[in-house]
Design goal:
4 helices; alpha/beta; globular; Rossmann fold; seven-stranded mixed sheet
Length: 147
């Protein structure tokens, strides 16, 4: 993967990104929504792993431009925009408070979340943890919406 973060966040080297990538490799490819896409690392990796369609969402226009450029450089299709769309799986490598605020707003069945320390864990009604990965004091969780 070729990633130029430009002025957007994310090179792919941080433990939280690596943990999200590990969890992405363990789930069946499906439609994916990357919330807070930054440079597009997770969107691009997901597309390369066979997830489709992949939509990258961010409130920062620079992040959307960088994600689009990085997706093209890697020869993958990633839709970019500011609107949340339904998907089977969301990936969110962002602050814990944002994860907890955003999860109830997403039209998804499962989510891979990270961006917080090992001692923290998302607490959101109707969501349960299926798996957890830890590295260098950071954590990532695979969550599922309870039926």
């Amino acid at each position: 993967m070729v990633i130029d973060p430009g002025r957007a966040f994310g090179t792919g080297a941080h433990a939280t990104t690596r943990l999200c990538l590990e969890l992405l490799q363990e789930v069946e490819p499906t439609s994916l929504l990357d919330v807070g896409c930054g440079s597009g690392v997770l969107s691009i990796a997901a597309a390369k792993l066979g997830f489709a369609p992949v939509r990258a969402v961010d409130v920062d226009e620079v992040a959307l431009e960088v994600t689009s450029s990085n997706a093209a450089a890697n020869g993958v299709s990633v839709e970019v925009g500011a609107e949340l769309t339904p998907a089977s799986l969301a990936v969110m490598n962002i602050a814990l408070d944002v994860v907890e605020r955003m999860l109830p707003e997403l039209a998804v069945e499962r989510a891979i979340t990270s961006g917080y320390l090992e001692r923290d864990e998302p607490r959101v009604d109707l969501w349960q943890r299926l798996a957890r990965r830890v590295r260098d004091g950071w954590a990532a969780d695979l969550l599922e919406l309870r039926p």
